Amino acid sequence: MTDLCGVQLAGPVLNGSGTFDAIAARRAFGDALLERFPFHAFVSKTITLAPREGNPPPRLWETPGGLINSIGLPNKGLEGFLAHDLPELAELPVPLIVSVMGFSREELARLVQRTGERDEVALIELNVSCPNVETGLVMGADPAETAHAVEHVRPLTDRPLIVKLTPNATDPAAVARAAEEAGADAVSLINTLKGMALDPRTRQPWLGGTTGGVSGPAVRAIALEQVRAVAAAVGIPVIGMGGIASGRHASDFLSAGAACVAVGTENFRDPAAGVRIAAELGKPAAV
Amino acid sequence: MLSTAERWGGGEDERPYLPRAFSYARAREGELSFLAETVGPGTRRLAELRPGDGLELLGPLGVGWRPPLAGTRPLLVGGGIGTAPLLCWQDELGPDTTVLLGFRSAAHAQAATLFGGEPAVATDDGSAGRQALVTDLLREELDGSATVFACGPPAMLEAVRAICADAGVPAQLALESGMACGFGACFGCVVPTKEGYVRLCVDGPVLAAEELESALFPGAGH
Description:
Chain A is α/β, with parallel strands linked by helices. Chain A has eleven helices and 14 strands. In chain A, 36% of the residues lie in helices and 18% in strands. In chain A, the strands form three sheets. Chain A has an eight-stranded parallel β-sheet with strand order 3-14-13-10-9-8-7-4. In chain A, strands 5-6-12-11 form a four-stranded antiparallel β-sheet, with no helix packed on it. In chain A, strands 1-2 form a two-stranded antiparallel sheet. Chain A is globular. The two termini of chain A are 26 Å apart. Chain B has two domains: 2-57, no CATH class; 73-211, Nucleotide-binding domain of ferredoxin-NADP reductase (FNR) module (Rossmann fold), CATH 3.40.50.80. Chain B is 19% helix and 23% strand. Chain B has helices spanning 41-47, 84-93, 134-141, 154-167, 200-203; strands at residues 2-4, 26-28, 31-33, 55-57, 73-79, 98-103, 120-123, 130-131, 146-151, 171-174, 190-193, 196-199, 206-208. In chain B, strands 8-7-6-5-9-10-13 form a seven-stranded mixed β-sheet, sandwiched between helices. In chain B, strands 1-4 form a two-stranded antiparallel sheet. Chain B has a two-stranded antiparallel ribbon with strand order 2-3. In chain B, helix 3 runs parallel beside helix 4. Chain B is globular, with a radius of gyration of 17 Å. The two termini of chain B are 15 Å apart. In chain B, 49% of the residues are buried. The chains are: A alpha/beta, B alpha/beta.
């Protein structure tokens, strides 16, 4: 068992927000998904107050050992999520973490209050780090901004609050410390690194959103260093992620100080990646 | 979604990394067939496979062809490597189903021999069949009694969409867009429709032509 802020998990493997749609996956794979659910806790896609269509296509570009995405947080909005998605996510066999992003402190407050009053929600993750949306970058890149946001919503819920850190900050450990002092119960990192690609023919930005976030094995070494630095700076649990594709990688993040790990881009290559990584984690490391 | 079990990654520019989305061309007892054209590191690696090599496969995924509108005759229109999903559809509809195919040249037209009956073939250079566009063949063949099923490059699909819209004929289009996962996780393969963006992997890859303003959208066919 793994304890995450007082919530008991059967193991330490989570998914990164936005890298697994459990509702679509259940439609594609049936209830077999629930019988061998790939994660020990499930993190929802980021929910915003108003519905969002997301960024114009194209949204993806394959990089050496990874992927740039410019998705733009498409979601049904808070009320759509509570009415339609939350009842389906509540049927998952693991605790639910809802990821939320507000474009102002008032929006964030409403998101935290409304999701936190639902019994189906075990923890709340504050996405202050999505590089595709301007305000996300500003909030999570600055310790004081992050602290203000956390202080503002901390009294509104008794659910544990996880702050998702952006790697696109001068000093993620300083942002993590500020989040902890403001009342965060855990931090998770890394979100994607800002990147871009050019259309080989037109020489113009390929992605509809111009820039995107880089993920996958290409970012693993950067993520591991940031997890170590953050874990050394805070006393609250750290959820480590960034290019984890095997039990060995997950083990590296745990050794670097993470209490839990999350699988992200690898889910795209293999919807059962979480099952495999958890099984590999349980085995002694091959020499 | 397809990827090789060995040496997927480590190629030129350290790619491929993600699996590649394919329609199966034919599904028979214990056997799946695919058509692949080498256009990048993924298809190049797949083309290197030898008998006995491992292949990772996730599928079938998404929503395919719906039956033709009651009382209409199916008309299958394919361009280039986009002929693949029409092959398995003709297998289901029957060998007498009318098939119109377009290719760059005879060298790219081998897939035509896999179809039942006598598919009409057009090539850009006239080296096989008629020197014409497959949409020229469609204009000649089209009447009010048809349901059109089309797959091919974006410009061809857009021409098919426009021709069928003008003629008031229902059409289904098998579209392509870059995909990371194939099962709705990444939201990367969206296509703009009259109702907003839809994920091609779970709501497609076959969409009713009437749902689209255009089959030419940014990233189409990639």
